[in-house]
Amino acid sequence: NAGVTQTPKFRVLKTGQSMTLLCAQDMNHEYMYWYRQDPGMGLRLIHYSVGEGTTAKGEVPDGYNVSRLKKQNFLLGLESAAPSQTSVYFCASSYRGQGYGYTFGSGTRLTVV
Amino acid sequence: SQQGEEDPQALSIQEGENATMNCSYKTSINNLQWYRQNSGRGLVHLILIRSNEREKHSGRLRVTLDTSKKSSSLLITASRAADTASYFCATDRGSGNTPLVFGKGTRLSVIA
Protein backbone atom coordinates (compact mmCIF):
# COMPACT_ATOMS: atom_id res chain seq x y z
CA ASN A 1 0.00 0.00 0.00
CA ALA A 2 2.04 2.93 -1.32
CA GLY A 3 -0.24 5.80 -0.17
CA VAL A 4 0.76 9.00 -1.99
CA THR A 5 3.70 8.86 -4.39
CA GLN A 6 5.35 11.94 -5.83
CA THR A 7 7.75 12.00 -8.74
CA PRO A 8 10.37 13.25 -9.17
CA LYS A 9 11.91 13.68 -5.70
CA PHE A 10 14.44 16.29 -6.82
CA ARG A 11 14.72 18.53 -9.85
CA VAL A 12 16.81 21.49 -10.96
CA LEU A 13 15.32 23.71 -13.65
CA LYS A 14 16.61 26.69 -15.51
CA THR A 15 14.50 29.84 -15.52
CA GLY A 16 11.89 29.60 -18.26
CA GLN A 17 11.87 25.81 -18.47
CA SER A 18 8.70 23.84 -17.93
CA MET A 19 8.03 20.66 -15.99
CA THR A 20 5.26 18.52 -14.56
CA LEU A 21 5.14 17.07 -11.07
CA LEU A 22 3.17 13.86 -10.75
CA CYS A 23 1.18 12.78 -7.72
CA ALA A 24 -0.43 9.35 -7.53
CA GLN A 25 -2.56 7.88 -4.75
CA ASP A 26 -3.86 4.36 -4.38
CA MET A 27 -6.37 4.92 -1.56
CA ASN A 28 -9.38 5.83 -3.72
CA HIS A 29 -9.42 9.32 -2.21
CA GLU A 30 -11.72 11.88 -3.77
CA TYR A 31 -9.77 15.02 -2.80
CA MET A 32 -6.22 15.87 -3.77
CA TYR A 33 -4.06 18.92 -3.03
CA TRP A 34 -0.81 20.59 -3.98
CA TYR A 35 1.03 22.64 -1.34
CA ARG A 36 4.38 24.36 -1.39
CA GLN A 37 6.56 24.69 1.68
CA ASP A 38 9.06 27.49 2.06
CA PRO A 39 11.24 28.30 5.09
CA GLY A 40 9.33 30.41 7.58
CA MET A 41 6.13 30.31 5.49
CA GLY A 42 4.59 27.01 6.46
CA LEU A 43 2.54 25.21 3.81
CA ARG A 44 0.60 27.21 1.26
CA LEU A 45 -2.09 25.72 -0.96
CA ILE A 46 -1.49 26.01 -4.71
CA HIS A 47 -4.42 24.12 -6.26
CA TYR A 48 -6.74 21.36 -5.22
CA SER A 49 -9.29 18.95 -6.67
CA VAL A 50 -12.52 17.64 -5.17
CA GLY A 51 -12.89 14.87 -7.72
CA GLU A 52 -11.90 13.53 -11.10
CA GLY A 53 -12.08 16.25 -13.75
CA THR A 54 -12.34 19.13 -11.24
CA THR A 55 -9.72 21.60 -10.06
CA ALA A 56 -9.76 24.79 -8.03
CA LYS A 57 -7.32 27.54 -7.11
CA GLY A 58 -5.74 27.81 -3.74
CA GLU A 59 -3.85 30.59 -2.02
CA VAL A 60 -0.88 30.84 -4.42
CA PRO A 61 -1.97 29.54 -7.85
CA ASP A 62 -0.13 31.97 -10.14
CA GLY A 63 2.46 30.32 -12.38
CA TYR A 64 1.01 26.84 -11.90
CA ASN A 65 -1.57 24.70 -13.67
CA VAL A 66 -3.09 21.39 -12.64
CA SER A 67 -5.04 18.52 -14.12
CA ARG A 68 -6.98 15.62 -12.63
CA LEU A 69 -7.86 13.43 -15.59
CA LYS A 70 -7.87 10.27 -13.49
CA LYS A 71 -9.05 9.96 -9.91
CA GLN A 72 -5.73 8.59 -8.71
CA ASN A 73 -3.49 11.19 -10.35
CA PHE A 74 -3.04 14.93 -9.79
CA LEU A 75 -0.51 16.73 -11.98
CA LEU A 76 1.10 20.07 -11.20
CA GLY A 77 2.63 21.96 -14.12
CA LEU A 78 5.03 24.85 -14.22
CA GLU A 79 4.85 26.44 -17.66
CA SER A 80 7.77 28.86 -17.32
CA ALA A 81 9.74 28.30 -14.14
CA ALA A 82 10.93 31.27 -12.08
CA PRO A 83 13.42 31.38 -9.18
CA SER A 84 10.51 32.30 -6.89
CA GLN A 85 9.14 28.81 -7.51
CA THR A 86 12.12 27.22 -5.80
CA SER A 87 10.44 25.28 -3.03
CA VAL A 88 9.47 21.89 -1.69
CA TYR A 89 6.19 20.73 -3.20
CA PHE A 90 3.88 18.37 -1.35
CA CYS A 91 0.92 16.50 -2.70
CA ALA A 92 -1.75 15.25 -0.33
CA SER A 93 -5.04 13.41 -0.58
CA SER A 94 -8.07 12.85 1.62
CA TYR A 95 -11.08 10.55 1.45
CA ARG A 96 -13.48 13.48 1.38
CA GLY A 97 -13.31 17.14 2.42
CA GLN A 98 -13.65 18.46 5.95
CA GLY A 99 -13.41 15.95 8.74
CA TYR A 100 -10.80 13.70 7.18
CA GLY A 101 -7.07 13.64 7.69
CA TYR A 102 -4.70 14.18 4.82
CA THR A 103 -2.12 11.68 3.58
CA PHE A 104 0.98 13.41 2.27
CA GLY A 105 3.60 12.37 -0.21
CA SER A 106 7.29 12.67 0.59
CA GLY A 107 7.72 15.85 -1.45
CA THR A 108 9.56 17.16 -4.50
CA ARG A 109 12.45 19.52 -3.93
CA LEU A 110 12.59 21.92 -6.89
CA THR A 111 15.35 24.42 -7.50
CA VAL A 112 15.02 27.01 -10.26
CA VAL A 113 18.29 28.67 -11.25
CA SER B 1 -3.26 33.71 4.53
CA GLN B 2 -2.40 31.87 7.72
CA GLN B 3 -5.36 30.65 9.74
CA GLY B 4 -3.51 28.86 12.50
CA GLU B 5 -0.40 30.05 14.24
CA GLU B 6 1.72 27.81 16.48
CA ASP B 7 3.55 28.89 19.58
CA PRO B 8 6.38 28.58 20.39
CA GLN B 9 8.25 28.55 17.10
CA ALA B 10 10.88 26.26 18.61
CA LEU B 11 11.02 24.13 21.74
CA SER B 12 13.89 22.15 23.21
CA ILE B 13 13.34 19.65 26.03
CA GLN B 14 15.00 16.66 27.68
CA GLU B 15 13.87 13.13 26.99
CA GLY B 16 11.12 12.11 29.37
CA GLU B 17 9.74 15.62 29.78
CA ASN B 18 6.38 16.75 28.46
CA ALA B 19 6.13 19.03 25.44
CA THR B 20 3.28 21.47 24.95
CA MET B 21 2.59 23.33 21.74
CA ASN B 22 -0.17 25.83 21.16
CA CYS B 23 -2.16 26.87 18.13
CA SER B 24 -4.33 29.95 17.74
CA TYR B 25 -6.65 30.57 14.84
CA LYS B 26 -8.76 33.44 13.59
CA THR B 27 -12.10 32.28 12.22
CA SER B 28 -14.63 29.66 13.24
CA ILE B 29 -13.79 26.08 12.39
CA ASN B 30 -15.41 22.66 12.12
CA ASN B 31 -12.26 20.67 12.78
CA LEU B 32 -8.67 21.21 13.83
CA GLN B 33 -5.91 18.77 13.01
CA TRP B 34 -2.32 18.26 14.13
CA TYR B 35 0.46 16.94 11.90
CA ARG B 36 4.08 15.94 12.43
CA GLN B 37 6.89 16.42 9.93
CA ASN B 38 10.25 14.78 10.34
CA SER B 39 13.15 16.51 8.65
CA GLY B 40 13.05 16.04 4.89
CA ARG B 41 9.81 14.07 4.96
CA GLY B 42 6.13 14.63 4.29
CA LEU B 43 3.60 15.51 6.95
CA VAL B 44 1.94 12.76 8.96
CA HIS B 45 -1.56 13.14 10.37
CA LEU B 46 -1.63 12.78 14.16
CA ILE B 47 -5.09 13.66 15.40
CA LEU B 48 -8.31 15.43 14.44
CA ILE B 49 -10.53 17.20 16.96
CA ARG B 50 -13.98 18.46 16.07
CA SER B 51 -15.36 21.81 17.16
CA ASN B 52 -17.80 20.15 19.56
CA GLU B 53 -15.00 18.25 21.32
CA ARG B 54 -12.86 19.69 24.10
CA GLU B 55 -10.19 17.04 24.51
CA LYS B 56 -8.91 14.04 22.62
CA HIS B 57 -6.22 11.46 23.35
CA SER B 58 -4.13 9.21 21.15
CA GLY B 59 -1.37 7.27 22.86
CA ARG B 60 1.02 9.84 24.36
CA LEU B 61 -0.74 12.70 22.60
CA ARG B 62 -3.38 14.87 24.20
CA VAL B 63 -5.11 17.61 22.24
CA THR B 64 -7.41 20.24 23.68
CA LEU B 65 -9.63 22.69 21.88
CA ASP B 66 -11.11 25.90 23.24
CA THR B 67 -13.37 27.39 20.59
CA SER B 68 -14.20 30.41 22.76
CA LYS B 69 -10.51 31.37 22.75
CA LYS B 70 -9.92 30.02 19.24
CA SER B 71 -6.99 27.98 20.47
CA SER B 72 -5.74 24.41 20.69
CA SER B 73 -2.86 22.72 22.43
CA LEU B 74 -0.92 19.55 21.70
CA LEU B 75 0.71 17.80 24.64
CA ILE B 76 3.24 15.04 24.11
CA THR B 77 3.89 13.19 27.34
CA ALA B 78 7.12 11.39 28.25
CA SER B 79 8.84 12.64 25.12
CA ARG B 80 11.41 10.57 23.26
CA ALA B 81 14.23 11.51 20.91
CA ALA B 82 12.10 10.10 18.08
CA ASP B 83 9.53 12.84 18.76
CA THR B 84 11.99 15.40 17.38
CA ALA B 85 10.11 16.94 14.47
CA SER B 86 8.06 19.95 13.42
CA TYR B 87 4.43 19.99 14.48
CA PHE B 88 1.73 21.82 12.56
CA CYS B 89 -1.84 22.65 13.33
CA ALA B 90 -4.29 22.86 10.44
CA THR B 91 -7.78 24.23 10.34
CA ASP B 92 -10.67 24.36 7.95
CA ARG B 93 -12.62 27.57 7.51
CA GLY B 94 -15.87 26.30 8.97
CA SER B 95 -17.88 26.34 5.75
CA GLY B 96 -17.98 24.33 2.57
CA ASN B 97 -15.25 21.85 1.85
CA THR B 98 -12.35 24.26 1.66
CA PRO B 99 -8.93 22.68 2.17
CA LEU B 100 -6.92 22.85 5.35
CA VAL B 101 -4.85 25.90 6.14
CA PHE B 102 -1.60 25.11 7.95
CA GLY B 103 0.30 27.14 10.49
CA LYS B 104 4.05 27.68 10.33
CA GLY B 105 4.79 24.96 12.83
CA THR B 106 6.64 24.39 16.09
CA ARG B 107 10.06 22.79 15.84
CA LEU B 108 10.50 20.36 18.72
CA SER B 109 13.90 19.03 19.70
CA VAL B 110 14.04 16.23 22.27
CA ILE B 111 17.51 15.78 23.69
CA ALA B 112 18.51 12.32 24.87
What does this structure look like?
The complex is a heterodimer of chains A (113) and B (112). Helix content of chain A is 0%, strand content 51%. With 113 residues, chain A is mainly beta. Chain A is globular and about 35 Å long. Chain B is mostly beta strands and 112 residues long. The A-B interface holds A 4, 31, 33, 35, 40-43, 45, 48, 50, 58-59, 90, 92, 96-107 and B 1-2, 30-31, 33, 35, 40-45, 48, 50, 88, 90, 92, 96-105.
SSE layout and pairings?
The complex is a heterodimer of chains A (113) and B (112).
Chain A: E1 4-7, E2 10-13, E3 19-25, E4 31-38, E5 42-49, E6 56-57, E7 64-67, E8 73-78, E9 87-94, E10 103-104, E11 108-112
Chain B: E1 4-7, E2 10-14, E3 19-25, E4 31-37, E5 43-50, E6 55-58, E7 61-66, E8 71-76, E9 85-91, E10 101-102, E11 106-111
Parallel strand pairs in B: 2-11
Antiparallel strand pairs in B: 1-3, 3-8, 4-5, 4-9, 6-7, 7-8, 9-10, 9-11
Quickly describe the structure.
The complex is a heterodimer of chains A (113) and B (112). Chain A is mostly beta strands.
Distance between the termini of chain A: 36 Å
Strand content of chain A is: over 45%
Shape of chain B: globular
Compute the gyration radius of chain A: what is it? 13 Å
> Major sheet of chain A: size, sense and barrel closure?
7 strands, mixed
Could you give a short account of the major beta sheet of chain B?
Answer: 6 strands, mixed
Oligomer: heterodimer
Largest interface: A-B, 27 and 27 residues
Separate helix tally of chain B: 0
Q: SSE order of chain B in H/E notation? A: EEEEEEEEEEE
| Helical residue percent band of chain B | under 10%
Number of helices of chain A: 0
Secondary-structure class of chain B: mainly beta
Strand/helix succession of chain A:
EEEEEEEEEEE
